[in-house]
Amino acid sequence: xxxxxxxxxxxxxxxxxxxxxxxxxxxxxxxxxxxxxxxxxxxxxxxxxxxxxxxxxxxxxxxxxxxxxxxxxxxxxxxxxxxxxxxxxxxxxxxxxxxxxxxxxxxxxxxxxxxxxxxxxxxxxxxxxxxxxxxxxxxxxxxxxxxxxxxxxxxxxxxxxxxxxxxxxxxxxxxxxxxxxxxxxxxxxxxxxxxxxxxxxxxxxxxxxxxxxxxxxxxxxxxxxxxxxxxxxxxxxxxxxxxxxxxxxxxxxxxxxxxxxxxxxxxxxxxxxxxxxxxxxxxxxxxxxxxxxxxxxxxxxxxxxxxxxxxxxxxxxxxxxxxxxxxxxxxxxxxxxxxxxxxxxxxxxxxxxxxxxxxxxxxxxxxxxxxxxxxxxxxxxxxxxxxxxxxxxxxxxxxxxxxxxxxxxxxxxxxxxxxxxxxxxxxxxx
Length: 430
Fold this sequence. Notes:
Layout: H1 2-33, H2 36-61, H3 66-89, H4 95-123, H5 129-180, H6 197-201, H7 203-209, H8 212-242, H9 247-271, H10 277-297, H11 301-329, H12 335-368, H13 376-383, H14 389-409, H15 413-416, H16 418-421, H17 425-428
Protein backbone atom coordinates (compact mmCIF):
# COMPACT_ATOMS: atom_id res chain seq x y z
CA UNK A 1 0.00 0.00 0.00
CA UNK A 2 2.94 2.49 -0.24
CA UNK A 3 1.48 4.21 -3.31
CA UNK A 4 -1.86 4.63 -1.58
CA UNK A 5 -0.19 6.15 1.49
CA UNK A 6 1.78 8.64 -0.66
CA UNK A 7 -1.33 9.84 -2.52
CA UNK A 8 -3.35 9.84 0.69
CA UNK A 9 -0.80 12.16 2.33
CA UNK A 10 -0.85 14.62 -0.58
CA UNK A 11 -4.65 14.70 -0.64
CA UNK A 12 -4.74 15.22 3.14
CA UNK A 13 -2.52 18.31 2.91
CA UNK A 14 -4.48 19.68 -0.04
CA UNK A 15 -7.81 19.08 1.68
CA UNK A 16 -6.70 21.05 4.74
CA UNK A 17 -5.96 24.04 2.50
CA UNK A 18 -9.22 23.67 0.60
CA UNK A 19 -11.27 23.47 3.80
CA UNK A 20 -9.58 26.63 5.07
CA UNK A 21 -10.74 28.45 1.95
CA UNK A 22 -14.25 26.99 2.17
CA UNK A 23 -14.53 28.03 5.82
CA UNK A 24 -13.34 31.58 5.09
CA UNK A 25 -15.71 31.92 2.13
CA UNK A 26 -18.64 30.59 4.18
CA UNK A 27 -18.16 33.36 6.73
CA UNK A 28 -17.68 35.91 3.95
CA UNK A 29 -20.96 34.93 2.22
CA UNK A 30 -22.96 34.88 5.47
CA UNK A 31 -21.67 38.30 6.51
CA UNK A 32 -22.53 39.65 3.07
CA UNK A 33 -25.98 38.08 2.58
CA UNK A 34 -27.26 36.71 5.94
CA UNK A 35 -29.09 34.12 3.78
CA UNK A 36 -29.28 30.33 3.97
CA UNK A 37 -30.25 30.26 0.30
CA UNK A 38 -27.06 32.04 -0.76
CA UNK A 39 -24.96 29.45 1.08
CA UNK A 40 -26.90 26.45 -0.19
CA UNK A 41 -26.63 27.73 -3.78
CA UNK A 42 -22.84 27.43 -3.57
CA UNK A 43 -23.30 23.76 -2.78
CA UNK A 44 -25.93 23.43 -5.52
CA UNK A 45 -23.70 24.88 -8.24
CA UNK A 46 -20.86 22.63 -7.10
CA UNK A 47 -23.11 19.60 -7.64
CA UNK A 48 -25.21 20.40 -10.72
CA UNK A 49 -22.44 20.13 -13.38
CA UNK A 50 -21.36 16.80 -11.90
CA UNK A 51 -24.77 15.36 -12.80
CA UNK A 52 -24.09 15.86 -16.50
CA UNK A 53 -20.36 15.12 -16.54
CA UNK A 54 -20.28 11.96 -14.40
CA UNK A 55 -21.58 9.48 -17.05
CA UNK A 56 -18.95 10.81 -19.46
CA UNK A 57 -16.35 10.84 -16.69
CA UNK A 58 -17.02 7.14 -16.05
CA UNK A 59 -16.15 6.31 -19.67
CA UNK A 60 -13.03 8.50 -19.55
CA UNK A 61 -11.81 6.95 -16.29
CA UNK A 62 -12.13 3.48 -17.83
CA UNK A 63 -10.17 4.59 -20.91
CA UNK A 64 -7.45 7.03 -19.83
CA UNK A 65 -4.59 6.83 -17.35
CA UNK A 66 -6.18 7.65 -13.99
CA UNK A 67 -3.04 9.35 -12.68
CA UNK A 68 -3.29 11.98 -15.42
CA UNK A 69 -6.93 12.62 -14.57
CA UNK A 70 -6.08 13.14 -10.90
CA UNK A 71 -3.32 15.58 -11.85
CA UNK A 72 -5.72 17.47 -14.11
CA UNK A 73 -8.29 17.76 -11.31
CA UNK A 74 -5.76 19.24 -8.88
CA UNK A 75 -4.44 21.65 -11.53
CA UNK A 76 -7.90 23.01 -12.38
CA UNK A 77 -8.74 23.34 -8.69
CA UNK A 78 -5.61 25.46 -8.24
CA UNK A 79 -6.56 27.68 -11.20
CA UNK A 80 -10.09 28.24 -9.85
CA UNK A 81 -8.73 29.08 -6.40
CA UNK A 82 -6.17 31.47 -7.86
CA UNK A 83 -8.92 33.24 -9.84
CA UNK A 84 -10.93 33.80 -6.64
CA UNK A 85 -7.81 35.19 -4.98
CA UNK A 86 -7.30 37.69 -7.80
CA UNK A 87 -10.92 38.89 -7.60
CA UNK A 88 -10.61 39.29 -3.84
CA UNK A 89 -7.32 41.17 -4.26
CA UNK A 90 -8.98 43.58 -6.71
CA UNK A 91 -11.94 43.93 -4.30
CA UNK A 92 -14.22 42.68 -7.08
CA UNK A 93 -15.30 39.34 -5.63
CA UNK A 94 -19.06 38.75 -5.63
CA UNK A 95 -21.14 35.76 -4.62
CA UNK A 96 -21.99 34.84 -8.21
CA UNK A 97 -18.27 34.53 -8.98
CA UNK A 98 -18.14 31.67 -6.50
CA UNK A 99 -21.08 29.96 -8.21
CA UNK A 100 -19.17 30.05 -11.51
CA UNK A 101 -15.87 28.94 -9.96
CA UNK A 102 -17.29 25.96 -8.07
CA UNK A 103 -19.33 24.94 -11.10
CA UNK A 104 -16.28 24.97 -13.37
CA UNK A 105 -14.11 23.11 -10.89
CA UNK A 106 -16.77 20.49 -10.22
CA UNK A 107 -16.50 19.21 -13.80
CA UNK A 108 -12.81 18.36 -13.42
CA UNK A 109 -13.11 17.59 -9.72
CA UNK A 110 -15.51 14.79 -10.53
CA UNK A 111 -12.97 13.29 -12.92
CA UNK A 112 -10.38 13.42 -10.15
CA UNK A 113 -12.72 11.95 -7.52
CA UNK A 114 -13.79 9.08 -9.75
CA UNK A 115 -10.21 8.36 -10.86
CA UNK A 116 -9.05 8.32 -7.22
CA UNK A 117 -11.85 6.10 -5.92
CA UNK A 118 -11.50 3.57 -8.76
CA UNK A 119 -7.73 3.38 -8.20
CA UNK A 120 -8.10 2.26 -4.58
CA UNK A 121 -9.08 -1.27 -5.61
CA UNK A 122 -5.83 -1.50 -7.61
CA UNK A 123 -3.56 -0.06 -4.92
CA UNK A 124 -4.99 -1.89 -1.90
CA UNK A 125 -5.57 -5.62 -1.20
CA UNK A 126 -9.25 -6.60 -1.02
CA UNK A 127 -9.09 -7.39 2.69
CA UNK A 128 -8.02 -3.76 3.32
CA UNK A 129 -10.71 -1.99 1.28
CA UNK A 130 -12.64 -0.89 4.37
CA UNK A 131 -9.44 0.25 6.12
CA UNK A 132 -8.33 2.28 3.09
CA UNK A 133 -11.75 3.89 2.75
CA UNK A 134 -11.74 4.76 6.45
CA UNK A 135 -8.40 6.55 5.92
CA UNK A 136 -9.89 8.50 3.00
CA UNK A 137 -12.82 9.51 5.22
CA UNK A 138 -10.41 10.52 7.99
CA UNK A 139 -8.76 13.00 5.58
CA UNK A 140 -11.94 15.05 5.35
CA UNK A 141 -12.63 15.00 9.06
CA UNK A 142 -9.04 15.62 10.03
CA UNK A 143 -9.18 18.70 7.84
CA UNK A 144 -12.37 19.72 9.60
CA UNK A 145 -10.41 19.84 12.86
CA UNK A 146 -7.40 21.75 11.62
CA UNK A 147 -8.83 24.00 8.92
CA UNK A 148 -11.46 25.96 10.90
CA UNK A 149 -8.97 26.54 13.73
CA UNK A 150 -6.28 27.79 11.35
CA UNK A 151 -8.64 29.80 9.18
CA UNK A 152 -10.41 31.35 12.17
CA UNK A 153 -7.13 32.59 13.62
CA UNK A 154 -5.41 33.58 10.38
CA UNK A 155 -8.37 35.19 8.60
CA UNK A 156 -8.28 38.42 10.68
CA UNK A 157 -4.52 38.66 10.13
CA UNK A 158 -3.91 37.67 6.50
CA UNK A 159 -7.42 37.98 5.05
CA UNK A 160 -9.08 35.91 2.36
CA UNK A 161 -6.14 36.32 -0.03
CA UNK A 162 -3.72 34.94 2.55
CA UNK A 163 -5.92 31.93 3.25
CA UNK A 164 -6.13 31.20 -0.47
CA UNK A 165 -2.33 31.55 -0.79
CA UNK A 166 -1.95 28.76 1.77
CA UNK A 167 -4.48 26.72 -0.20
CA UNK A 168 -2.42 27.12 -3.38
CA UNK A 169 0.71 25.88 -1.59
CA UNK A 170 -1.15 22.75 -0.50
CA UNK A 171 -2.26 22.16 -4.09
CA UNK A 172 1.41 22.17 -5.08
CA UNK A 173 2.18 19.50 -2.49
CA UNK A 174 -0.68 17.32 -3.74
CA UNK A 175 0.51 17.65 -7.35
CA UNK A 176 4.04 16.69 -6.32
CA UNK A 177 2.92 13.51 -4.57
CA UNK A 178 0.84 12.53 -7.60
CA UNK A 179 3.83 13.06 -9.91
CA UNK A 180 5.94 10.80 -7.71
CA UNK A 181 3.31 8.07 -7.33
CA UNK A 182 3.18 5.04 -9.62
CA UNK A 183 -0.51 4.31 -9.79
CA UNK A 184 -1.49 0.88 -11.16
CA UNK A 185 -3.82 0.95 -14.14
CA UNK A 186 -6.47 -1.60 -15.14
CA UNK A 187 -6.49 -3.37 -18.48
CA UNK A 188 -8.29 -0.68 -20.46
CA UNK A 189 -10.71 -2.34 -22.85
CA UNK A 190 -11.76 -0.85 -26.14
CA UNK A 191 -15.43 -0.04 -26.51
CA UNK A 192 -17.09 -2.46 -28.88
CA UNK A 193 -17.57 -0.95 -32.29
CA UNK A 194 -21.21 -1.99 -32.24
CA UNK A 195 -21.87 0.14 -29.16
CA UNK A 196 -23.57 3.45 -29.75
CA UNK A 197 -22.76 6.58 -27.77
CA UNK A 198 -25.95 6.08 -25.76
CA UNK A 199 -24.97 2.50 -24.95
CA UNK A 200 -21.57 3.64 -23.75
CA UNK A 201 -23.09 6.34 -21.56
CA UNK A 202 -25.67 3.97 -20.08
CA UNK A 203 -23.35 0.99 -19.56
CA UNK A 204 -22.99 1.60 -15.82
CA UNK A 205 -26.71 2.02 -15.27
CA UNK A 206 -27.46 -1.15 -17.25
CA UNK A 207 -24.82 -3.05 -15.28
CA UNK A 208 -26.48 -2.02 -12.01
CA UNK A 209 -30.07 -2.69 -13.09
CA UNK A 210 -29.12 -6.25 -14.13
CA UNK A 211 -28.10 -6.96 -10.53
CA UNK A 212 -30.99 -6.55 -8.04
CA UNK A 213 -28.66 -6.38 -5.04
CA UNK A 214 -26.83 -3.37 -6.52
CA UNK A 215 -30.19 -1.76 -7.28
CA UNK A 216 -31.10 -2.20 -3.62
CA UNK A 217 -27.78 -0.57 -2.62
CA UNK A 218 -28.47 2.41 -4.88
CA UNK A 219 -32.03 2.86 -3.59
CA UNK A 220 -31.01 2.66 0.07
CA UNK A 221 -28.12 5.08 -0.26
CA UNK A 222 -30.21 7.45 -2.39
CA UNK A 223 -32.95 7.62 0.22
CA UNK A 224 -30.34 8.28 2.88
CA UNK A 225 -28.48 10.86 0.76
CA UNK A 226 -31.67 12.79 0.04
CA UNK A 227 -32.05 13.64 3.71
CA UNK A 228 -28.32 13.87 4.39
CA UNK A 229 -27.81 16.47 1.65
CA UNK A 230 -30.60 18.63 3.01
CA UNK A 231 -28.80 18.55 6.36
CA UNK A 232 -25.41 19.35 4.79
CA UNK A 233 -26.86 22.38 3.06
CA UNK A 234 -28.49 23.65 6.27
CA UNK A 235 -25.68 22.91 8.72
CA UNK A 236 -23.72 26.17 8.46
CA UNK A 237 -26.79 28.45 8.20
CA UNK A 238 -28.34 26.74 11.22
CA UNK A 239 -25.28 27.21 13.44
CA UNK A 240 -24.65 30.77 12.28
CA UNK A 241 -28.30 31.79 12.69
CA UNK A 242 -28.63 30.28 16.17
CA UNK A 243 -25.28 31.64 17.37
CA UNK A 244 -25.73 35.20 16.12
CA UNK A 245 -23.31 34.70 13.23
CA UNK A 246 -20.49 33.57 15.54
CA UNK A 247 -17.70 32.17 13.35
CA UNK A 248 -15.88 30.78 16.38
CA UNK A 249 -18.88 28.66 17.34
CA UNK A 250 -19.17 27.33 13.79
CA UNK A 251 -15.47 26.52 13.83
CA UNK A 252 -15.69 24.71 17.16
CA UNK A 253 -18.69 22.62 16.08
CA UNK A 254 -16.99 21.78 12.79
CA UNK A 255 -13.82 20.84 14.65
CA UNK A 256 -15.82 18.55 16.97
CA UNK A 257 -17.26 16.84 13.90
CA UNK A 258 -13.74 16.49 12.54
CA UNK A 259 -12.51 14.85 15.74
CA UNK A 260 -15.42 12.42 15.59
CA UNK A 261 -14.75 11.61 11.94
CA UNK A 262 -11.02 11.09 12.49
CA UNK A 263 -11.62 8.90 15.55
CA UNK A 264 -14.21 6.91 13.63
CA UNK A 265 -11.77 6.47 10.76
CA UNK A 266 -8.93 5.41 13.07
CA UNK A 267 -11.08 2.93 14.96
CA UNK A 268 -12.39 1.49 11.71
CA UNK A 269 -8.91 1.19 10.21
CA UNK A 270 -7.78 -0.77 13.32
CA UNK A 271 -10.94 -2.85 13.57
CA UNK A 272 -11.50 -3.46 9.85
CA UNK A 273 -15.28 -3.20 10.03
CA UNK A 274 -18.08 -5.76 10.24
CA UNK A 275 -17.48 -9.09 8.46
CA UNK A 276 -20.73 -8.35 6.66
CA UNK A 277 -20.16 -4.83 5.45
CA UNK A 278 -23.85 -4.14 4.84
CA UNK A 279 -24.24 -4.02 8.63
CA UNK A 280 -21.69 -1.22 8.75
CA UNK A 281 -23.64 0.73 6.15
CA UNK A 282 -27.08 0.39 7.76
CA UNK A 283 -25.95 0.81 11.37
CA UNK A 284 -23.88 3.81 10.27
CA UNK A 285 -27.02 5.33 8.74
CA UNK A 286 -28.87 4.86 12.01
CA UNK A 287 -26.10 6.25 14.21
CA UNK A 288 -25.56 9.34 12.07
CA UNK A 289 -29.30 10.01 11.85
CA UNK A 290 -29.85 9.64 15.59
CA UNK A 291 -27.15 12.09 16.64
CA UNK A 292 -27.89 14.60 13.88
CA UNK A 293 -31.47 14.65 15.18
CA UNK A 294 -30.11 15.60 18.60
CA UNK A 295 -27.98 18.27 16.95
CA UNK A 296 -31.07 19.85 15.39
CA UNK A 297 -32.76 19.92 18.80
CA UNK A 298 -29.70 21.40 20.53
CA UNK A 299 -29.60 25.14 21.15
CA UNK A 300 -26.06 25.82 22.35
CA UNK A 301 -22.49 25.19 21.25
CA UNK A 302 -21.84 22.33 23.68
CA UNK A 303 -24.93 20.41 22.56
CA UNK A 304 -24.02 20.90 18.88
CA UNK A 305 -20.42 19.88 19.45
CA UNK A 306 -21.36 16.70 21.31
CA UNK A 307 -24.05 15.65 18.84
CA UNK A 308 -21.93 16.38 15.79
CA UNK A 309 -18.98 14.50 17.28
CA UNK A 310 -21.02 11.31 17.70
CA UNK A 311 -22.81 11.74 14.36
CA UNK A 312 -19.49 12.04 12.53
CA UNK A 313 -18.13 9.02 14.38
CA UNK A 314 -20.54 6.95 12.27
CA UNK A 315 -19.81 8.51 8.88
CA UNK A 316 -16.59 6.60 8.06
CA UNK A 317 -18.45 3.42 8.97
CA UNK A 318 -21.24 3.72 6.42
CA UNK A 319 -19.17 5.27 3.64
CA UNK A 320 -16.30 2.79 3.96
CA UNK A 321 -18.62 -0.20 4.26
CA UNK A 322 -20.68 0.83 1.24
CA UNK A 323 -17.70 1.64 -0.97
CA UNK A 324 -15.87 -1.56 -0.09
CA UNK A 325 -18.92 -3.54 -1.25
CA UNK A 326 -18.80 -1.81 -4.63
CA UNK A 327 -15.03 -2.33 -4.96
CA UNK A 328 -15.42 -6.03 -4.19
CA UNK A 329 -18.37 -6.67 -6.51
CA UNK A 330 -17.42 -4.61 -9.60
CA UNK A 331 -14.31 -5.44 -11.72
CA UNK A 332 -11.74 -2.60 -11.59
CA UNK A 333 -11.81 -2.09 -15.37
CA UNK A 334 -15.56 -1.35 -15.17
CA UNK A 335 -15.61 0.69 -11.97
CA UNK A 336 -15.37 4.07 -13.69
CA UNK A 337 -18.63 3.58 -15.56
CA UNK A 338 -20.46 1.65 -12.85
CA UNK A 339 -19.46 3.90 -9.94
CA UNK A 340 -20.07 6.86 -12.25
CA UNK A 341 -23.66 5.74 -12.77
CA UNK A 342 -24.15 5.29 -9.04
CA UNK A 343 -22.65 8.72 -8.33
CA UNK A 344 -24.78 10.36 -11.03
CA UNK A 345 -27.92 9.21 -9.25
CA UNK A 346 -26.54 10.55 -5.97
CA UNK A 347 -25.61 13.87 -7.55
CA UNK A 348 -29.08 14.35 -9.02
CA UNK A 349 -30.52 13.81 -5.55
CA UNK A 350 -27.93 16.09 -3.96
CA UNK A 351 -28.63 18.89 -6.44
CA UNK A 352 -32.38 18.69 -5.92
CA UNK A 353 -32.11 18.45 -2.14
CA UNK A 354 -29.72 21.39 -1.97
CA UNK A 355 -31.84 23.52 -4.27
CA UNK A 356 -34.95 23.13 -2.13
CA UNK A 357 -33.27 23.20 1.29
CA UNK A 358 -32.44 26.92 1.36
CA UNK A 359 -35.78 28.26 0.10
CA UNK A 360 -37.68 25.83 2.35
CA UNK A 361 -35.70 27.05 5.35
CA UNK A 362 -35.89 30.78 4.53
CA UNK A 363 -39.44 30.99 3.21
CA UNK A 364 -41.38 28.20 4.94
CA UNK A 365 -39.85 26.81 8.13
CA UNK A 366 -38.26 30.00 9.47
CA UNK A 367 -41.46 32.12 9.27
CA UNK A 368 -43.55 29.20 10.54
CA UNK A 369 -41.38 28.80 13.63
CA UNK A 370 -41.40 32.44 14.69
CA UNK A 371 -43.61 33.51 17.60
CA UNK A 372 -47.28 32.89 16.69
CA UNK A 373 -46.17 30.94 13.61
CA UNK A 374 -48.20 27.80 12.75
CA UNK A 375 -45.35 25.40 13.58
CA UNK A 376 -44.19 27.16 16.74
CA UNK A 377 -47.30 25.96 18.60
CA UNK A 378 -46.27 22.34 17.96
CA UNK A 379 -42.46 22.51 18.05
CA UNK A 380 -41.55 25.81 19.69
CA UNK A 381 -41.17 24.17 23.10
CA UNK A 382 -38.43 21.95 21.65
CA UNK A 383 -36.70 24.17 19.07
CA UNK A 384 -37.51 27.67 20.34
CA UNK A 385 -38.85 30.54 18.23
CA UNK A 386 -35.75 32.65 17.67
CA UNK A 387 -33.77 32.99 14.44
CA UNK A 388 -32.67 29.61 13.14
CA UNK A 389 -35.42 27.59 14.83
CA UNK A 390 -37.09 26.79 11.53
CA UNK A 391 -33.80 25.68 10.00
CA UNK A 392 -33.19 23.47 13.04
CA UNK A 393 -36.62 21.83 12.69
CA UNK A 394 -36.02 21.03 9.03
CA UNK A 395 -32.54 19.74 9.88
CA UNK A 396 -33.93 17.44 12.60
CA UNK A 397 -36.66 16.08 10.31
CA UNK A 398 -34.09 15.21 7.66
CA UNK A 399 -31.93 13.49 10.28
CA UNK A 400 -34.85 11.38 11.52
CA UNK A 401 -35.38 10.23 7.95
CA UNK A 402 -31.70 9.11 7.81
CA UNK A 403 -32.24 6.94 10.89
CA UNK A 404 -35.40 5.37 9.44
CA UNK A 405 -33.65 4.48 6.18
CA UNK A 406 -31.00 2.52 8.09
CA UNK A 407 -33.59 0.76 10.24
CA UNK A 408 -35.86 0.03 7.30
CA UNK A 409 -32.99 -1.38 5.24
CA UNK A 410 -32.97 -4.50 7.41
CA UNK A 411 -36.49 -5.24 6.25
CA UNK A 412 -35.39 -5.88 2.64
CA UNK A 413 -33.69 -9.22 2.06
CA UNK A 414 -32.18 -8.23 -1.29
CA UNK A 415 -30.28 -5.43 0.43
CA UNK A 416 -29.57 -7.28 3.65
CA UNK A 417 -27.98 -10.20 1.75
CA UNK A 418 -26.16 -8.22 -0.95
CA UNK A 419 -22.78 -9.78 -0.11
CA UNK A 420 -24.22 -13.31 -0.24
CA UNK A 421 -26.28 -12.93 -3.39
CA UNK A 422 -23.64 -11.16 -5.49
CA UNK A 423 -20.18 -12.80 -5.75
CA UNK A 424 -16.97 -10.76 -5.59
CA UNK A 425 -15.60 -9.90 -9.03
CA UNK A 426 -12.48 -12.05 -8.56
CA UNK A 427 -14.57 -15.04 -7.48
CA UNK A 428 -16.87 -14.72 -10.50
CA UNK A 429 -13.84 -15.20 -12.75
CA UNK A 430 -12.82 -18.49 -11.15
